[in-house]
């Protein structure tokens, strides 16, 4: 009964909240306008730097974004002048010095916003951010909703619920209903587009967690009873209303992620115990979505693709070619064309020059005549640790005395000290691999941008002529060994050539 009430609240909130489905979002400005944000917090040190990221239309991850690094002025204040390229303009402010509850992630600005943000410690010990100035209401609403939902989640987590699945979806119902009602009461004065995006953010973030809870449990080892239970939970989620028409909601990355995970999990149930192929997922998106939803979900699928046993590199590139003939978003088309060019076998690789921990510069040309496996990672990346362990345990020992191949790991941290500490720890950098650094530029480094990387680990295999052999390298022992043997056997280089 409680779940039904929560669901009714969510549906009513959506009906009352979303603009007419035909309404077009304001996506471009005819002139340059600005928003100004000043931030000061007790826990930030004078040496801390913060990063402002502004986003264009959502493509995938951090793609179609620009970053600006800011330092404190003499009074301990960081000042950001945000160019308004889209209305609303999505942005984030983050940095190593900001604690989890004080980073501003996926906020929305309008021309003329002039905000002062102050961070301080509450009596209970938690950090609290307060907002004042022109346009402060929407910032305070987003922050207060996030904070209130987090506190409610802690209380709900202490209750005894019959199963982990019921706990997960029960929380999502309660938190979504609470978050939507919380923002409804504070949306006065917001332009409709921003109110819609904030709501879509709440729904997307919370229900995506529920869907993601299902996926890893769909293993071939699941019993019939477990599978039936998971399917009932998924069917309950899939029966909930979704918006696939409103062009404003399609700009919410959180909502697009929810739709994608919902579709992918449903496709997995359909072919269980196998996994759906890339082409099958693309075909389902094409059959189920139109307009900006098709564009967003297609680019989300293709830019976030990871190699698996059900789809080859050829399948991936063929899917990109098909998508390019149907996509309307010219920016998404541009990214996919770059992806097609950078990932095609035989294309020239980016000619890098990067330092190691001693400051020595290593250039791509230094490895001419060798197959090069480049492993990209950052500190704190769990999957990066898993891939490093795979190299250390199963791959590098086989080739440690083979002069035809070299292993290079490339770090994408912003802090050189953190990178060096991780290298000395050895968990991310297996013995026998050369450790290089992108000089604190992270996603802004030309090498990272060349391959459109949006997350890590990423692995690229080059042949002896510095050309791409594969930019979709398997992350399992069998697949990776087969690819390396294939590259060496093709005669890209001669045995023993240096």
Q: What do you see in this structure?
A:
- The protein has 498 residues and is of the alpha+beta class.
- The protein folds into 3 domains: 1-276, no CATH class; 282-344; 353-489, 3-Layer(aba) Sandwich (Glutaredoxin).
- The chain has 14 helices and 15 strands.
- The chain has helices at residues 2-17, 136-157, 164-184, 192-214, 224-238, 253-271, 278-288, 291-303, 313-324, 330-343, 382-399, 416-425, 446-450, 477-489; strands at 33-41, 50-55, 65-70, 78-84, 89-94, 104-109, 114-121, 127-134, 353-355, 361-363, 371-377, 405-411, 433-437, 458-462, 468-470.
- The strands form 4 sheets. A 5-stranded mixed sheet has the order 13-12-11-14-15. It has a 4-stranded mixed sheet with strand order 4-1-7-8.
- A hairpin with a 5-residue loop joins strand 9 (353-355) and strand 10.
- Helix 3 runs antiparallel to helix 4 and helix 5 (224-238) runs antiparallel to helix 6.
- The radius of gyration is 24 Å and the shape is globular.
- The model is unreliable at 1-30, 158-163 and 492-498 (pLDDT under 50).
Write the layout of secondary structure elements.
Blueprint: H1 2-17, E1 33-41, E2 50-55, E3 65-70, E4 78-84, E5 89-94, E6 104-109, E7 114-121, E8 127-134, H2 136-157, H3 164-184, H4 192-214, H5 224-238, H6 253-271, H7 278-288, H8 291-303, H9 313-324, H10 330-343, E9 353-355, E10 361-363, E11 371-377, H11 382-399, E12 405-411, H12 416-425, E13 433-437, H13 446-450, E14 458-462, E15 468-470, H14 477-489
Parallel strand pairs: 1-7, 11-12, 12-13
Antiparallel strand pairs: 1-4, 2-3, 2-5, 5-6, 7-8, 9-10, 11-14, 14-15
